[in-house]
Structure prediction request, 180 residues.
Amino acid sequence: MRLFLLVVGCALAVSVAPANAQSWALLDRALAGATQIFAKAQDALGASSMGVSTEVYAQALGQQRFRPAGQDTAVTVLFKREDGADPGCARFAAYVIPAPQQRTATIYLCPQFFQSGTDELRTTTILHEMVHVVAGPDECLAMAYTAGVQLLATGRFQPVAGYWRQSGCASSPYRLPATR
Ligand SMILES: [Zn+2]
Prediction:
């Protein structure tokens, strides 16, 4: 359920985080970038892809509020910024914890999300975590779906071969797109 991106050492996580407003600006940019990429891929995905409903995913990403298939009540997607003390942040840039009773799913954003990498990595993280929000903890699904969306939208995808291997995805039902 938790990922992503770079499995970085804890040493990185203790460097100074940017000011709060700046952090949220980075998140807004990543959300806007992810929404833009998904919009380009949306038609080609059809009604669903890899079992993920295109409409439900679009709602979650675009409105941070979605209605799961067969359910009447909407789920709200929340974002929470975590500091390095969160053990979930030792290895991941972000992770998701669903709270079905509260009708929420929270994306926890770790220091790595704000500190390392580029807007493109942050955008990838948002696309990836949103798969967990709507479809659960399967890492292989989240990686394959994200790569598929990126490929459809831009002709390429963020390489995840290392994490794919670590997660044992070769024996999963999912595949990364073929690279040329
Ligand atoms: Zn993940």
DSSP finds seven helices and seven strands in the chain. Residues 20-45 form the longest helix (26 residues). Residues 2-171 form a domain with the Collagenase (Catalytic Domain) fold (CATH 3.40.390).
